[in-house]
Amino acid sequence: MSLVTLSHVCSHLQNASRARLGLTSVPSTNLILSLMLSLQTSGFLSAVVRGGPDPPPPSLLLNLPANNTSDIEPVTQSNISTRRLWLGLKYWNSEPVLRKMNM
């Protein structure tokens, strides 16, 4: 994992919050996962969910009990490269909580 990829993730999060997106995704790696979980613990992100190329069901993002868990695709050797981290961005008074993020 290079610092270039991590800087791309920082830039993507900053651009997504400026565009007022509620949901965005980043590549799923252990380093990015630990950074996103730290941001969620600190209150900058509302949700961090592992998923595929398609967004997860809203019940997973809102921490509600899932009605049907059979739609969740298991991780295998053939699909590991398509895994994404889906992030819920937070806003306060119509302003993004995560305004600026840099290395």
Short description:
The chain is 32% helix and 21% strand. The protein has three helices and five strands, in the order αβαβαβββ. The strands form two sheets. It has a three-stranded antiparallel beta sheet with strand order 1-3-2, with helices on one face.
Sum up the structure in keywords.
two-stranded antiparallel ribbon; alpha+beta; 32% helix; three-stranded antiparallel β-sheet
Q: Write down the Rg.
A: 14 Å
Give the strand line-up of the largest sheet: 1-3-2
Structural class: alpha+beta
Strand content: 15-25%
Overall, the morphology is globular
Would you write up a description of this structure?
This protein has three helices and five strands; from the N terminus they run H-E-H-E-H-E-E-E. It is an alpha+beta fold and 103 residues long. A three-stranded antiparallel sheet has the order 1-3-2, covered by helices on one side. The chain has a two-stranded antiparallel ribbon with strand order 4-5. Strand 4 and strand 5 form a beta hairpin. The radius of gyration is 14 Å and the shape is globular.
